[in-house]
Each structure stands twice: as structure tokens, then as C-alpha cells.
């Protein structure tokens, strides 16, 4: 366990950082800050922090930046920007638990897109392919449950304790709208992962890619804000909670979380890192009930459990593919390549 102690602690800290961002962003958006302005501020801070860090870390290994590379960065940022916009809208209309539950759909959607774009083959004879396909279907079913079925409240927050009894089926249009926004977030995030993998093959300087990502997202969100948000007061960082949330998002949601997860990826590989994603559901339940007054419903428990089962099925299939690829290369006397996968939360820290 000694070798895994620091990565273990690091991944727990990264999950707490993600849930903290969800809770803070929900609070400031409830106070009137739009998700577009929040995205602009947080990515601007992230870019300012990552510029010197990326140049320092990659000072000896900086591939030349061509026009096509910049176009790739811009496309990556556009997908990430759409993911963030949909994600924060989902957080605003839903709860922290709903958000962290549905975001576990990303591996399944990534698998679907990889098959559609022929980046991955679906072999019906291989157990790993069947596990990924079945896991994706199960995860999507879980997302339907957590979005459409509420059931009785199992845990009640302070504010939710005084509300009337919720129906078994979710008739709250905001809750269903949140589920749709978060599902759109997962689709955009999955497309982001596919594009990011392609870019990193040609430009393997991770933190420089992340810097340009934050830089272009800041520009894209600024343009959106200038078109959509005409009220100058909307840019205000008062009350102080807005400033705190923006600083937290820039420092912990971008620089800190990206750095921790990148380091853990290099130390342990993608399977170890992915194993911690469902932990965010438990953290969000506890913090949501304590600090946001959210209620935790039976539907959320059942749906989240189904999603996690599907998530681990997809994860097992990926791990099996890595193991088979390693054994295949080893039998040919070659060294297995280092596999690196990056989640959309590494950048945006939902």
C-alpha cells in the first residue's frame, strides 16, 4: 500500500475538490451569477495559473505549435465549453448528488463515440467488449431512474425538511431538465476526451494543452457573455461568495485538480484513477444534505447504484483490454505503451 498511499490521498482530495466546486457554483448561480460568467472567470484564472506552470514543467519538451494544432486546441476548448455550460446548468436546476451520479456516464458515452468513429472495435466474441456495452446500457438505465424517479426521502436537509411530500415519480420539470443538461454535458465531455486523446498523440505536453484549453474557453465564454449578458452588474464579484467560488474554481477546479489527477495517472494508470469517481456521489450526498439542505431520495440511491454498477462494468472491460494488449505485446517481445486517459472533470472539475 506504501506506493499507493499518496495517489490514494490525492484522488480523495481531487474528489472533494470536485464536489466542493459543484456546491459553490450552485450557491453563486442561485444568487444570480450566470453559468457563462462563472465559466469565464474560472477559466481565466486557470489559464493565468497554468501559463507559468506549463512553461516551467515543459521547458525542455515543447513541440512547435502549428496552425492546425491551434485549431485542435480551439475545437477541444469548444467541446469543453459546451460541456461546462450544460454541466453548470444541470447543477443549477438539480442537486449535487444528481450531478455526480450522472457524470459517471462519461466512460460509457466515450465508448459509444469511440465505436462510432471506429477508434474502438466492438467484438461480440470478446468478454471485455460485452462488458463495456452492457455497462453502458446499465449506466444509461440508472440515469433514467435517478432523473425520473424520486421516491421517498431517505435523508432530509434543513431546508428540505419543511417542504411538502415529494411524489414518487419526479414531476419537477427542473429536476428532469437538470438530468437532460447533465446528459448533454456527458456527451460533450465524451467527445472532448476523444479529441483530447488525438491531440495528445501529436502534442504530448499535457499542461500546455490544458493552458490553451482554459485560454480558449475563457475567450469563447467572454464572447457569449457579451452577446447574452448586457447587464454590467452581472459581472460583479459581490457578494464575497462569488469571488470565493471563482477563485476556488480557478485554483482547485483547474490547476490543483488537473495537476493531482495528471500526477496520479502517471503514478498508477487510468484504472486506479477511474475507481475513485463514484466516491464523489457519497461525498456529494453528505455535503449536499449538510450545507445545501438537499434531500437524498430513494430514487437517487437506486439510480446511483445502477450507474456505478454500469460504470465499473465499463471500467472492467477497459482494464481487460489493457491487460490483453499488454500480454499481446509482451508475447511479441515489445514493451507495452503507456496508456493515458483523461476525464472532462480533469479540466473543468465539475
Give the H and E element order: HHHHHHEHHHHHEHH
The percentage helix is: over 70%
Please tell me how large the radius of gyration is: 20 Å
Spans with pLDDT under 50 lasting ≥5 residues? 334-350
- The strands making up the biggest β-sheet line up spatially as 1-2
Shape: globular
Strand content: under 5%
Distance between the termini: 29 Å
The total of helices stands at: 13
Task: Characterize the largest beta sheet: strand count, sense, and whether it forms a barrel.
Answer: 2 strands, antiparallel
Total number of strands:
2
What is the overall pLDDT average? 81
How many discrete domains?
1
Structural class: mainly alpha
Protein name: WAT1-related protein
Keywords: Membrane, Transmembrane, Transmembrane helix
Subcellular location: Membrane
Transmembrane segments: 7-24, 36-57, 69-91, 97-117, 129-149, 175-195, 207-229, 241-265, 272-291, 297-315
